[in-house]
Structure formats: structure tokens, C-alpha cells
Amino acid sequence: MNNSSFAEPSRWLNKVPEVTLAFWCIKIMSTTVGETVADSLALNAGWGQGVTRTVMAVWLAATLFMQLRARRCVPWLYWLTVVLVSVVGTQITDLLTDGLGVSLYISTSAFAALLAALFVVWYRVERTLSIRHIVTRRRELFYWATILCTFALGTAAGDLATEALGLGFTWGVATFGAFIGVTFAAWRLGGSAVLTFWVAYILTRPFGAALGDFLTQPRSSGGLGIGALWTSSLFLAAIVALVAVAQVNQKPNRAAPRS
Q1: How confident is the model at residue 4 (pLDDT cuts 50, 70, 90)?
Q2: CA 20 to 30 Å from 42, out of 8, 94, 136, 165?
Q3: What is the rounded CA–CA span in Å between residue 162 and residue 165?
Q4: Cα–Cα distance list, 29 to 35, 49, 78, 141 (Å)
């Protein structure tokens, strides 16, 4: 790795898209896709859990490598990475819970502690947690490690709330949606943009997971019974459409200041 990747941030453009309504719509749908795609491939396509985990991990590694090599935000590449991180983050939690029998209370606490540690180290090294200044490879590595952790934590917390605590899919969607609404209100009232962003980013994961379960699970289990395949297809189509618009409308911009 060339040391100029860290020493000359002026060559980089900010690697994260502007946070707009479209950003949050894609983020929520990507979290739902993370909940449904793995199930579709493992069950409907007959790949099985082991093959699905391996394929998704390799695909994520290849995509993340391309993302890290880019020196500006490429919408289709960024969001493909997010979708794959969502899938892999979900699989990590599912492996711990279903494969290794780790309690959701333990996994949720462990991922929360890991996320807190990542934030502390990131801030101590870079003196900022703002996504408006992802202008060096080191900052981007911190960013993607944090994103993966938020997806794993969100999956564990969502399953803990809807299953272990008996909240259910409908109340899960309503509860996490209400928390997101409170976070948005706090931001509008002058709360820290960095803090409210990361709180919302974490909350959209269990919200999307609960939404995915609500849409895919059979009516007898409290869902709408649409199925994982149809839900994945519809949400992926919506993501592709929104990302295509972002790609077409992308304008050249200056390198973000380092701060």
C-alpha cells in the first residue's frame, strides 16, 4: 500500500454519498435484502448455508477491494458493497445464533461493545467520525469495519426484540420506526449530525430486518407471506432504480476537506 494513500487526502473525493432521503430509502431496503437474499439462496436456490456464506464472503471481498481502490464515490459500487455487507452481516449473526448456539443477548452485547470500541479507536486516530470526510483509505477502512459491525449488531438486536423478547414483526417495525422518528426529530432540533446519523444507521438495520420478516413470513406467523424471493426481487429492483438515478445525476465535486 502506498503511503500517499494516507498522506495526500487532497487526491481523494469523499467516498460516501450525500445523505438524502434516497440514501435512507436505499439503506433500509438494503437491510431488508440482507435479511431475505441469504434465505432465498440457501433455501429457495438450494445452495445451503455453507455455500451461501462462502460465495457472499468472496463476493464482498472482491467488491470491497474495488471500492477501496476508487478515489471517489461511485454510487453503484458503494451500494453494491452495502448490500453485500448487509448479507454477510446477517450471516455472521445467524451463524452465531443458529450454527453455534450463541444467545442473542450475548451476541447483541458483544457487537455493541465491538461497535463502541471501533468508534473510540476511529475517533482517537482520526479525531472525527463524520462520513463527510472519508477521504483516506484508513478512514474508509474504519468506515466499512463500522458498517459491517452495525449490520451484525442490528441483526442480533432485531432478532432479540422480535423473537427472544416476543415483540413480533409488526410491533418490531413500529417500535424501531418510532425510534428512527425520534432520532430524526432530535437532528431537526439541532442534535449532533454525526451522532444522529450513526444512531439512525444502527436503527435502520433492525427496522429493515423486522420489515423483511413481516413481508416474507407466512400469515400464520404474523407476516404477509410474500416470500423471500419476491421481496428480494422487488427491493433489489427498487435499489437498482434509485442507484441508477444517483449514478446518472452524479456531478464532479471537489475533494472533501480533511477534518
Answers
A1: very low
A2: 165
A3: 6
A4: 10, 22, 15, 23
pLDDT band at 5 (very low <50, low <70, confident <90, very high): very low
Maximal CA-CA distance, the chain: 58
Q: If we measure between CA atoms, which residue out of 185, 182, 173, 218 comes closest to residue 31?
A: 173
Task: List pLDDT tens digits, range 91-122.
Answer: 888 889 888 899 999 999 999 999 999 999 99
| Residue 184 near residue 5, CB atoms below 8 Å | no
Q: Are the beta carbons of 91 and 52 closer than 8 angstroms?
A: yes
> The whole model's pTM is what?
0.85
**Contact status, residue 150 vs residue 207, Cβ threshold 8 Å:** no
Q: Reduced to 3 states, what is the DSSP secondary structure of residue 14?
A: coil
Nearest partner of 50 among 105, 6, 94, 2, judged by Cα: 94
Can you give the pLDDT at residue 12? Answer: 64
